[in-house]
Design a protein that fits this description.
Elements lengths: L9 E4 L6 H31 L6 H29 L4 E3 H34 L4 H4 L2 H27 L8 E2 L6 H5 L7 H34 L4 H30 L7 H23 L4 H16 L1
Parallel strand pairs: 1-3
Antiparallel strand pairs: 1-2
Helix pairs in contact: 1-2, 1-9, 2-3, 2-9, 3-5, 3-7, 3-8, 5-7, 7-8, 8-9
Length: 310
């Protein structure tokens, strides 16, 4: 590096380059979605913690999903909202790297938790008599801890590899937040190692888990077709289809963003896809997984009745 080059101490988040009126509208819309996301996930988490009927492995993993979704959204949405009303869209170097670390960590953990949830449904439907033995609380705890640990260990590796790179300008991150691929484009050194590690992680936390989930759901589908009761088949199909909707949205978008070759024309599209991941997906998860579930509706009804009686 030349001696006349200065190191970057802060970045500028470009975001959506829109008119002031449109940005104000987006501020209200995004704020509404963010509040709804926190509210709905908070309600689900509270019901699971307070209602004994929901103290099962399935809802145990759903509680982790709710925590991840609230944390996932809170990693970058508040800064995004501030930038919509603030012309000074800078973010210091350390908070930027921290944002990258948390975003990747929560995203990777969610991938692994979704895999664990598909395994839970596989055991429940394909091996119902052995379910309580296989999915005991010790196994559930090990699966949850492993998912969180693997997710954030991978994220830590990316953060360390990012910190070793020199950033000497330009300093404009063409994204809504410090997304790792957008930050890497600003490095003043070879980022091939970072790119290889990102691709390897995508294979590990996207392609591998997605393939295993598809195999699980194919076996689940085969088992569901053997169920004699029409009501039982309908309930099982409903549960599996809701899970597949979430899996398709989350994994599909992630694979497009991180595994499809990059181009300048795709930058705006990637912003929209990342926005969906950060803002809409955390709100859709509880709606698809939980609030359409009879047990959760029953728990919500009992909680409301108990509040009224007091």
């Amino acid at each position: 590096m030349g001696s006349n080059q200065s190191w970057v101490t802060e970045f500028v988040l470009v975001g959506f380059e829109l008119s002031a009126d449109v940005e104000v509208l987006l501020l209200w819309v995004f704020s509404l979605f963010y509040i709804l996301s926190l509210l709905v996930n908070g309600v689900i988490l509270g019901l699971i913690c307070l209602d004994p009927s929901l103290h099962t492995p399935m809802y145990f993993f759903l509680s982790h999903l709710a925590i991840i979704d609230m944390s996932y959204a809170s990693t970058n949405v508040p800064k995004m909202l501030v930038n919509l009303v603030n012309q000074n869209r800078t973010i210091s170097f350390v908070p930027c790297i921290m944002q990258t670390f948390l975003y990747w960590g929560f995203a990777a953990t969610e991938c692994l938790i979704l895999v664990v949830m598909s395994c839970d449904r596989f055991v429940a439907i394909c091996h119902p008599l052995q379910y309580t033995v296989i999915m005991n609380w010790r196994v559930c705890m090990v699966l949850a801890v492993t998912s969180w640990s693997c997710g954030f260990i991978q994220s830590l590796v990316h953060a360390i590899l990012l910190l070793r790179l020199p950033f000497c300008g330009p300093r404009k991150v063409n994204h809504l937040f410090c997304e790792i691929l957008s930050v890497l484009k600003l490095a003043c050194a070879d980022t091939s190692i970072n790119q290889v590690v990102i691709f390897a992680d995508c294979v590990f936390i996207l392609v591998g888990p997605l393939c295993s989930m598809l195999v699980s759901y194919m076996r689940i589908l085969w088992a569901v077709l053997k169920i004699q009761s029409k009501e039982g088949r309908t309930k099982a199909f409903s549960t599996c289809l809701s899970h597949l909707c979430v899996v398709g949205l989350f994994f599909g978008i992630a694979m497009v963003v991180y595994m499809v070759p990059d181009s300048n024309q795709r930058e705006e599209q990637e912003k929209i896809l990342s926005l969906f991941h950060s803002l809409f997906n955390p709100m859709l998860n509880p709606l698809i997984y939980s609030l359409r579930n009879a047990q959760v509706k029953g728990a919500l009804y009992r909680a409301l009745q108990k509040k009224r009686s007091t």
